[in-house]
TrEMBL record:
Pfam families: 2OG-FeII_Oxy_2
Protein origin, superkingdom: Eukaryota
Region (Disordered): 1-47
Protein name: Fe2OG dioxygenase domain-containing protein
Residues that, per the record, bind Fe cation: 305, 307, 361
Annotated keywords: Dioxygenase, Iron, Metal-binding, Oxidoreductase
Listed cofactors: Fe(2+)
One GO CC term, this protein: nucleus
Length: 403
């Protein structure tokens, strides 16, 4: 719709006022430092200040004071030798980065080949999103056994059409208590989801964009922030176990002693030395028991939180990014520690160990048009996934619940 000159003037004025309000630090006073950064990165006008975002892909491009915070380390093993899924040895794959102010955090710049990433994306969408794994859609929809992606695929290739009964996924009759199923959507500024009587039945291509999360292994209960241990454990896909085990094993012994206290003082509560070691490497190699796949559309975010539901917090948490680039915030034990921000590009892998397991983190922003070219190819069996991932980010994260 064309705006009249007057409407344009009003819109411009409103945009200016809102930009001025955002730029005024006085409006931030009710916010803690974590929230201030979330606001910075969520802002569309004015655009975020990206100047201090850590970039582990090109260390020399970081601002000098950011550069001083980064420590490059060599991994104990080539990940590819620990697990063939990663492919041939590549020197760069033994590199990882630590941040002086965040003890326990290990960032491994994309160790995956394009093919390996495509396999993971395909599995996250087609296979691991299927029942009996739980997804946010289960609250309101009777998801078919073959899963919502399969239905979308059949709509795409014309084997199911709007006149077919199965085209619209049925709604659940009762109205379950809204269970915070907007785990990925930041509902801090939005009303809670409406009751199911107003939840629409949607064509598969729209419903697939509402998929926000799927749980693997122990099924997680978002409302109580506990695992449904009594329901037992659904299988953890072998591939997820193998790659996360290889990643954690490669981090064995990684750590640092912070000596550079003049230019970059460590966070006051940070210990001077930390190293990651699996407490029982021979008896029990790292075994992920629970996982979450987060599916982000371009305007989705994940608010500040700590993943602290595991009975044993000693195990590493492995988090793999796929698709468009995210801004990831990593703070301290309260929201009062100013977080660092980093780019997480497709394939980038974050391992949270030790102290980092207790730290607030979140994803305030997904950056448009940042999907790598190799995920946008037009082979016939990739096209449907390409059109999804072009406008999405997927995050696969796993943790060990018991030692
Ligand atoms: O999407 C991400 O990178 C982080 C996801 C996360 O923190 C979580 O699922 O607990
Ligand atoms: Fe998390």
């Amino acid at each position: 719709m064309e705006l009249s000159a007057r409407q344009r003037k009003i819109r411009d004025k409103q945009q200016q006022a809102s930009a001025a309000a955002k730029a005024d630090p006085a409006t931030y006073t009710t916010h803690n430092p974590f929230r201030t950064q979330e606001r910075n990165f969520k802002s569309r006008a004015p655009p975020p200040d990206f100047s201090r975002v850590f970039d582990f892909n090109d260390i020399e491009r970081n601002a000098p004071d950011v550069r001083k915070e980064i420590v490059e380390v060599e991994l104990a093993h080539d990940i590819g030798q620990l697990c063939s899924f990663f492919g041939q040895e590549d020197r760069s794959r033994r590199k990882a980065y630590l941040v002086k102010s965040v003890p326990g955090l290990v960032v491994i710049p994309n160790p995956f080949t394009p093919d390996a990433q495509r396999t993971l994306i395909r599995e996250c969408l087609c296979t691991w999103s299927r029942p009996p794994n739980t997804s946010n859609l289960d609250t309101h929809y009777k998801i078919p056994t073959q899963g919502i992606w399969n239905l979308f695929e059949r709509e795409w290739n014309g084997t199911v059409s709007p006149t077919d009964n199965e085209y619209l996924v049925g709604l659940k009759a009762h109205n379950p208590v809204p269970n915070g199923n907007g785990y990925v959507d930041d509902f801090t500024s939005k009303p809670p989801p409406p009751p199911s009587s107003t939840i629409p039945q949607l064509p598969p291509h729209q419903l697939i964009r509402k998929l926000r999360w799927v749980t693997l292994g122990y099924q997680y209960h978002w409302t109580t922030k506990t695992y449904h241990l009594e329901k037992g454990q659904l299988p953890m896909p072998d591939l997820v176990r193998d790659i996360s085990r290889a990643i954690v094993t490669s981090c064995e012994g990684v750590g640092m002693t912070v000596t550079d206290t003049v230019d970059a003082p460590p966070h006051p509560s940070a210990p001077k030395t930390w190293h990651y070691t699996n407490p029982h490497p021979e008896k029990a190699p790292y075994t992920p028991q629970a996982g979450v796949i987060n599916y982000y559309q371009m305007r989705d975010s994940l608010m500040a939180h700590v993943d602290k539901s595991e009975a044993w917090m000693g195990g590493a948490l492995v988090s793999i990014s796929l698709g468009n680039t995210a801004i990831f915030l990593m703070g301290g034990k309260t929201r009062d520690t100013p977080p660092i921000a980093m780019y997480l590009r497709s394939g980038d892998t974050v391992v949270m160990t030790g102290e980092a397991r207790d730290c607030f983190h979140g994803v305030p922003r997904i950056l448009e048009d940042t999907c790598p070219e190799y995920l946008l190819t037009d082979e016939s069996d990739w096209q449907i996934i390409r059109d999804y991932i072009r406008h999405s980010r997927i995050n696969l994260n796993v943790r060990q619940v018991f030692p």
